[in-house]
Design brief:
This protein has 22 helices and 11 strands. It is α/β, with parallel strands linked by helices. The chain has 3 domains: 201 residues, Alpha Horseshoe (Serine Threonine Protein Phosphatase 5, Tetratricopeptide repeat); 83 residues; 169 residues, Glycogen Phosphorylase B (Rossmann fold, 3-Layer(aba) Sandwich), CATH 3.40.50.2000. The strands form 2 sheets. It has a 6-stranded parallel sheet. Strands 1-5-2-3-4 form a 5-stranded parallel sheet.
């Protein structure tokens, strides 16, 4: 029996190495079905499951293997990595601390410990752990790359750029290029940042959904009447921010067709320069060239000084706006959006619990309106969102507001694109597009930022917003300075 199991295992290993993962899994399962303690199959099937993102399966397999070989530190490290990805942070910490007691210079354990600390919001300690890992093994590219990423999250972009360049000298990797682009763009080094940002299509995050389109990629040449497809990528806010380049592409002689999320179609259909709009996922019309929407800034050589920031570049349908007007009553009307897309990994840091808004809601003279779809609005906030079907409706509602207060979400981009006053509640590790050390935005002239001064400090942000609103006074007062809300 042992010889037969070894034969099946070796065949599964060959399938695994050849990338035939389904066949490899079938082989590992066959062996473990006959011998649940077959150590090599537990380890290799665990590696395969982890690679496929089936972390609960990997955790079970590595856990069983670790029980058979309790002195194997590398195996314990693999188990801790799977535990971290399953959200079992305490178990992962316990395993890595045991590893580091046994070997204080174990670089993989320090790196894995950094991952757990970063995932649980202990960023300073995560950076220290990554530094220990990289010091123990200067050529350990995972630790050097993770250190660069953590430094960027800590808003230390100069250090992040230097460390990520060091990682790239060890390994020319799309993920590292993508990380470098974020740090460069956040630091305002847009020219190199846009070039590095082109690596995004080859990253694990974006490659699976990246469209494979026929024809040629547009690089900025004139169109002579040909059709250019500007296709959607990433989130709704990304399209709202970067569709501003469509008129510039049309000015180069192209008939521009924009692919956008279906929720954006009524709004993007009104965009200057858009000859046609097609919903994402629908059959595309014929085109001569194509371009991802977030590649447009690089194609036009955008710098901080040349951002096309004239607003509004999107407009609400005037009939819809008029229909909303009687429903949006109040002396001073403020829209609230407190959460973004929960499917995004960073959403836990950019969204806030609605109860944190309470200090704002008792200010006199303000009527609050929810701009949050499919969420329960806090008490005291008028919720009309059941009648909002798409962003055309949201734009019509926002057009009737005096101010929008929003976290980093599509609503903030919408208000900025409409030229409406918007206050952005921004996390400490703000996205690259919001840059660093400024409370305005070169992308949106009517936007003002209220950033966390320390990670997670939403109460501090809300206190500053309340103080600014209170400084303006009661809107019912003859002394109220309404213009104060849009000062930068």
């Amino acid at each position: 029996m042992r010889a037969e199991l070894d034969r099946i295992f070796l065949d599964a290993m060959r399938q695994h190495q050849a990338g035939r993962l389904a066949e490899a899994e079938a082989g590992y399962r066959q062996v473990l079905g006959r011998d649940p303690d077959h150590f090599p199959s537990l380890c290799e099937f665990g590696r395969l499951a982890f690679h496929l993102g089936r972390y609960d399966v990997a955790r079970a397999l590595f856990g069983r293997a670790a029980a058979l070989a309790p002195a194997d530190r590398l195996l314990r490290n693999n188990l801790a990595n799977a535990e971290e990805h399953c959200g079992a942070f305490d178990a992962a910490l316990a395993n890595q601390r045991r590893n580091l007691v046994e070997d204080p210079a174990f670089p993989e354990a320090w790196n894995s410990l950094g991952n757990v600390l970063k995932a649980t919001g202990r960023l300073d300690r995560a950076i220290a752990a990554y530094r220990r890992s990289a010091a123990a093994a200067p050529d350990y590219v995972a630790a050097v790359g993770n250190l660069g990423s953590a430094l960027h999250q800590a808003a230390e972009d100069a250090a992040a750029i230097a460390v990520t360049r060091r990682a790239l000298a060890l390994l020319d990797d799309p993920e590292l290029h993508h990380n470098l682009s974020h740090a460069l763009l956040a630091a305002g080094q847009l020219a190199e940042g846009w070039r590095e940002y082109e690596w995004r299509s080859r990253t694990a995050q974006h490659a699976p959904a990246w469209p494979q389109l026929p024809g040629r990629r547009w690089m900025g040449e004139g169109g002579q009447g040909g059709t250019l497809l500007v296709h959607a990528e990433q989130g709704l806010g990304d399209m709202l921010q970067f569709c501003r380049y469509v008129p510039l592409a049309a000015a180069r002689g192209w008939r521009v067709v924009v692919e956008a999320d279906r929720l954006l179609i009524p709004l993007i259909g009104r965009l200057d320069g858009a000859a046609d709009v097609v919903a994402r996922g629908d059959v595309l019309p014929a085109f001569d060239a194509y371009c991802p929407v977030m590649s447009l800034p690089g194609i036009f050589g955008t710098t901080l000084q040349t951002i096309p920031a004239a607003v509004p570049y999107l407009t609400a349908d005037p009939d819809k706006a008029a229909a909303w007007r009687p429903r949006v009553a109040g002396r001073f009307r403020v829209g609230l959006a407190w959460a973004g897309n929960p499917a995004l990994a960073a959403d836990v840091r950019r969204s806030l619990a609605p109860d944190l808004l309470a200090p704002l809601l008792d200010l006199p003279g303000i009527t609050w309106f929810s701009l949050q779809k499919d969420r329960v609005a806090p008490a005291g906030v008028v919720d009309l969102m059941a009648d909002v079907a798409d962003f055309g409706d949201t734009a019509a509602l926002v057009t009737n507001l005096d101010l929008v207060i929003a976290v980093d979400s599509a609503v903030a981009h919408l208000a900025g694109a409409l030229g409406r006053p918007v206050w952005l509640l921004n996390r400490f590790d703000a996205e690259w597009r919001w840059l660093r050390d400024r409370d305005d935005s070169p992308w949106y002239p009517t936007l003002r930022q209220f950033r966390q001064t320390t990670p997670g400090d939403w109460p501090g942000v809300i206190a500053r917003v309340r103080a600014e609103l209170a400084r303006m006074g009661d809107p019912s007062s003859s002394h109220w300075q309404k213009d104060a809300f849009c000062s930068i």
